[in-house]
Design a protein that fits this description.
0% strand; mainly alpha; 76% helix; 433 residues; Growth Hormone, Chain: A
Length: 433
Amino acid sequence: MRRFSGVRGTLWPVLQSADFRVIWYVGSLGEVGRRMELLVLSWLILQLTDSYFQLGLVLAFNNLSRPMVSMFSGYIADRFPRGRTLLAGQAINVLTTATLLSVIAYDFDLIKPWHVFGAVFIQGITKAIEDPSRRTAIFDIVGQRRLVNALSLDVISHNIGKMAGPIMGGILLDTTGFTGAYSFLLSVHICNLALMTRLRIPNYQGPAQIEPVLRSLKVAVSYAWRSPVLVSLFYITIVMNALAFPVQQFIPAIGRDHLGVGVILVGLLVAADGFGQLAGAGIMAISRDLRYHGRVFVLGSLGVLVIGAIFVWSPWYGLTFGLLTISGIAQSGFSTMQSAVTMLATPHDMRGRMMGLLSVCIGAGTPLGALELGALASAVSIQSAISLNALAGLLLLLPAIAFTSLPWKPLSQAETEPALEPDAAPEPAAGEA
C-alpha cells in the first residue's frame, strides 16, 4: 500500500524537530520586521519626495550591499558557527532601528531621504550575511531527504512575514503615524533577537584544511562555472531580480496614484503576492519525491513575468489584488527551488559559499533593476515601465530554457570530494551536464 503523502507523511517529521521550529519562527518574525520596515520607509520616501526614482532608490540601497558582501558571507557560513552569525546580524538590525526611531521621535522634520537610504542599506548588509547561514543551517538540521519540505516551510514563513509586515505597517501608519509604527518595529526586532538565543544548529566546521578566503571563493566560482545547471539558475536569478521583482517596490505608488487608495489598502496590496506564495509553498511542502526541481523553478519564473506584464493595467483594486496573488503562487515555485537546486547541486562543504554566490546574483540584479524601473517610470508611466520590463525578462529567459538541462532533467545530489587540490573545483553533480 502506498504511504500517505499528505501533511503527516511529509511535514510532520520536519516539524517534530525543535531546532527546525525555532529557526522557522526566527525566519517568520524576521521577515515580518523586514517587510514592515520596507513599507514604512517606502511610504516615508513617497511623502517626503513624491518621486518614483527615489522610491526605487529604497530597494536599490537595500540590495546594494549584496554583491559587496555576499561572497564573503558564504565563506562565513562555511567557516563559523551559523547561530552566532545570525545573532550578530539581528543585533545590528536592533541598533539601526533604534537609531532611526530616536531621530523620528525627537523631531520628525529632521528626517531626510539619506537617513532612510542608510537604514535600508544596513538592513541589506545584515540580510546578505544572514541568508547563507540560515538556509544552510536548515539543511544541517533536516538533511537532504526533507530539504524541499523544509524549504517550502521556510517559504511559508517568508510569506507570512511578507503578508503580515505590510498589513501591520499600513494599519500602524494610519493609526499611530511613523513614530508608532517604528516603535512597534523595534519591538519586533528585539523579540527576534531574543528568539535567536534559543537556536541550536548542528556544529559544522567545514573542511579540515582551511583555505585562504580568496582561494576558497575561487574554488566555489570555478565549480559553479563548470555546472550548466548552476550557471542557468544564477542567470535566471539575475534576470528575475533585475526585471521582475523590483516591481514590488512600486506597488505603494500604484496603489496611491493609479488605484487611488490609502495606506491601509496599499499595505494589503503589497501583501497580495504573499497570499499566493503561501498557497504555493503549502502545496510543495506536502509534495513527495519531487525530481524536476529546475522545471518548477523555470515555470515559476515565467508565471511571475507574465502576470507582471498585465496586472498594472487593471483599473480595479480587487482584480489587481487577485493577479498579484496568482503571481505569488508562481513566485513560490521560484523561491523554493532556487535554494533547493543550489544546495542539491553543490557539495556539502561548499553550500554556504554557493548560497553566497546566489545572494551575489540577487544583489547584482536588484539595485540596477530598481534604478532602471524608477527612471523609466519617471520618463514614461509606471504601467508602461513595468510591462516593458516583464516582456524583456521573458525574452531573456528563452536561452536558459532552450539550451540547458535545468528544466528538462532531474537533479542528483552533489557529493563532497574528499581531497581537492587547492586551486581545483570538484566535478559538478551527475545530471547537470
